User: What shape does this take?
Amino acid sequence: MTERFAVEIGRIAGQALYPKESMLAVEERRKNLFIGIPKESSFQENRIGLTPDAVKQLTDHGHRIWIEAGAGSPSKYSDNEFSEAGAKVVYSTKEVYDADIILKVAPPTYDEIEYLRPGQTLISALQFGSLTGDYINALLRKKINAISYELLRDKSDSKPVVRAMSEIAGSTVMLIAAEYLSISNDGRGIILGGITGVPPSKVVILGAGTVAEYAARAALGLGAEVKVFDNHIYKLRRLKHNVGTQLFTSTLDKTVLYHEIKQADVVIGALVAEDGRMPCMVEESIVAQMNPGSVIIDVCIDHGGCFETSELTSHSRPIYRKYDIIHYCVPNIPSRVPRTATSALSNIFTPILTEISKYGGVSEVLFTNEHYRSGVYIYKGSLTNAQIAKRFGMRYKELGLMIAVRN
Assistant: This one.
């Protein structure tokens, strides 16, 4: 009897030392969210975070959504569509910032930052190319949680928003090129592609990422001759595999690259900045030797561009000519097709908001889903992004430790 008692005591003690899996699991504590969607005030930003269909999906599950009047107009969504979907249309920016979660596409302006209050969560872009230390300090003073969707990763460790916008940009640049090659825009007067008996147009793409992949797909589909340059062999190999066809690829050998650029009808700059620097800059003297009426589209203009002749343009004035070469250097190309871009963003943000609700709040979803932490750069008023801290010489805290202590 004594032996059996001792065994039972040992079993109970073992259970105490080794918690059951159910004790480790995070309890699902569903919480209704209060989401605010301001009207975008930034220059050239035509997208919005949620479509009316997504709003209906969220409001049907008990979430409150306030949207500023006119916020959907650039994407061709009316206030009435959002109202019918269950959102409340408000008529001042200050009012929409009463929400607990602010969902924006562009970063808030300094004036909009003043509307933020401690404890709120901001989901928006951060735009590293134009980021300043003063801007980060302005956000830190508000003691908010801030999530950059450019940094946000999913369970596959890819960046869903960056990829979606890159797919749109890559597909759109070839439509832009076709438009400006036309004689109606004083271009070379050639078709982007090829027809029987006529040599195909020549497209050179700098970079082998997502933008390049979708640009190459579109150009090849039209029958153009496509040549891709990048210094990352694995990216070139992946591009060839994804496109599924034989494709001319090369490293950024200037002798070969410059020879091809001089003969090209269209040149797409889609290189990714590394440590803030472009891995290649096409010199002005090379641009001057291109065929008159050719088109340069510099997709990476928001990171300084990869052509020495690149200058920032806008959707209202998208092009200029230099050496009789048409330059299209508009940042934020997805805003050219805002309804498509809005649908893509909505497909990403809706599940994220649903997850936040499912786990009972932002802190809880970060504790449970480690991949979401990549997007957080401010947590409870503290900087948590090492890259930003290093860039501006600021202190930061380890997000994982902050969340662990809290929970």
Observations:
- The first helix runs from residue 2 to 17.
- The chain has 16 helices and 15 strands.
